[in-house]
Amino acid sequence: MTSGKTERFGLGPYVLADGKFFILHDDGTLSVVKASSSDFQLLGRTRILDGQDAWGPMAITGGYLLIRDIRHLVCIDIREKGGNL
Question: Fewest beta carbons less than 10 Å away: which of 29, 39, 45, 76?
Answer without folding.
Answer: 39
